[in-house]
Known about the structure:
- With about 100 residues, the chain is mainly α.
- The protein contains five helices and two strands, in the order αββαααα.
- It has helices at about 5-10, 25-30, 35-45, 55-65, 70-95; strands at about 15, 20.
- The relative contact order is 0.15.
Amino acid sequence: MVTTFADLIGSWPRGSLKGRQLTSIATFAKDVNVTYSHAQIMRYRNSIGPDYWAAVVRAAERRKVSVTHEDLVRMREQSKEDRAHTNDARTARCANAA
C-alpha cells in the first residue's frame, strides 16, 4: 500500500505508447492527462492537487492500482503534517542560530 503521493506516482504501472515502453511517471502523466513535467513536480513536491484526484482514481481503477479518494485525503493530511514538522524544525534551527 502506498502512503505518499510520491510513492503513488513512482509505483505507477509502466505503460506503452506507439510500441515504446514508458516510465511509470510518463504513464501516470498520460493517464491523468498532465504533462510529464507536471507529473515530475507532483512527485517532487509529494503533492497531487485535489483537482486531479478524480482523474487519478479513475486511472488507478483502469490500471488496477489500489487507491481511493479516501487514500488521497489521508495522503494530503499526512503531507500537511510532514510539512508542519519540517517548518517547526527550520524555525527552531533559525532561533538557535540567532
